[in-house]
Specification:
Layout (H helix, E strand, L loop, with lengths): L1 E3 L14 H7 L4 E5 L1 H9 L3 E7 L7 H4 L8 E4 L1 H8 L7 E6 L6 H6 L7 E4 L5 H13 L4 E4 L9 H6 L9 E3 L6 H7 L3 E5 L5 E2 L9 E5 L8 H5 L2 E4 L11 H14 L11
Parallel strand pairs: 1-4, 3-4, 6-7, 6-11, 7-8, 9-11, 9-12, 10-12
Antiparallel strand pairs: 2-5, 3-5
Helix pairs in contact: 6-10
Length: 272
């Protein structure tokens, strides 16, 4: 059932008020999904609690909305009302409130992963675009999970979910406690820590992918902490002379592709 909203102050849509500001301070176990693709992913995992859409989009979204439990409220509003509620122009015209799934224990998550499912281990990733890109790459190249340091931003921030095309809702992730020894945890689960840095001792192109690989990536600029580098096998990605850095999400894509396909193009897929 579609519920028409004319008043931006209607208490039934209070959860959608001031989306941008409230996302930054958390939503008490909830997240905001934005856009049709992300809504479809979240709906498929049974996470959606309420939906707010531009009334002009209701007919085109009918088949997607039919996948929601019948008691899920779907509110519709004119664009001007929608913009007033969320606090900015929401040109996609689709927002949803979802329940955050519980985060698993990182050690238990690692122990349960099969071989040939690499893990991304992230330190100091504070940019939501980069976080979303890293999760999208993890999904595209078959990573089993993402482990996050306590200094990483939230993968379930609205923008990170959108950039990931919903991958932050599908790729399992867990946080390891500040000051904990992530390398020891990885090694106990049989994963080989591979730390990437321009100063890495080996080249990625020479790496024979291990059965259980953990890809360690740090923030752009500072990179990985020295203590982490000292505990891991260090690698670099060769580049043109005079250039030694890549965007961290791009680095993740190159590394995960190499681990998935040994540096070669996939055997399946469209031929060019």
């Amino acid at each position: 059932m579609l519920i028409s909203i004319d008043d931006p102050g209607d208490p039934r849509i209070a959860a959608f008020l001031n989306v941008r500001e409230r996302d930054l301070v958390g939503r008490q176990g909830r997240f905001v999904a934005e856009g049709e693709v992300v809504l479809a992913v979240a709906a498929g995992r049974g996470l959606i609690e309420a939906v707010l859409i531009d009334q002009k989009r209701a007919e085109g979204l009918a088949s997607l909305l039919d996948r929601l439990p019948p008691d899920t409220p779907v509110y519709t509003a004119a664009q001007a009302v929608l913009d007033t509620v969320v606090g900015f122009h929401i040109h996609r015209g689709i927002l949803a409130i979802g329940r955050r799934p519980p985060e698993p224990d990182p050690a238990a998550l690692l122990q349960g992963l099969p071989d040939h499912k690499p893990v991304l281990v992230l330190h100091g990733i504070g940019n939501h675009d980069n976080m979303g890109g890293l999760f999208r790459n993890a999904a595209a190249f078959g990573a089993g999970a993402v482990l996050l340091g306590g200094d990483c931003c939230d993968p379930l921030y609205r923008k990170a979910i959108r950039v990931s095309v919903g991958a932050t809702l599908t790729v399992p992730f867990a946080r390891f406690a500040p000051g904990s020894d992530a390398c020891t945890m990885l090694q106990a689960a049989g994963f080989e820590p591979l730390a990437f840095s321009p100063a890495g001792a080996e080249r990625l192109i020479d790496l024979e992918p291990p059965a259980r690989a953990a890809v360690l990536l740090g923030s752009e600029g500072p990179g990985l902490p020295e203590a982490v580098m000292a505990r891991a096998r260090t690698l670099s990605i060769p580049m043109s002379p005079g250039w030694d850095s890549l965007n961290v999400a791009v680095t993740g894509a190159i590394v995960l592709h190499h681990l998935a396909f040994g540096g070669e193009a996939p055997r399946s897929g469209p031929k060019r």
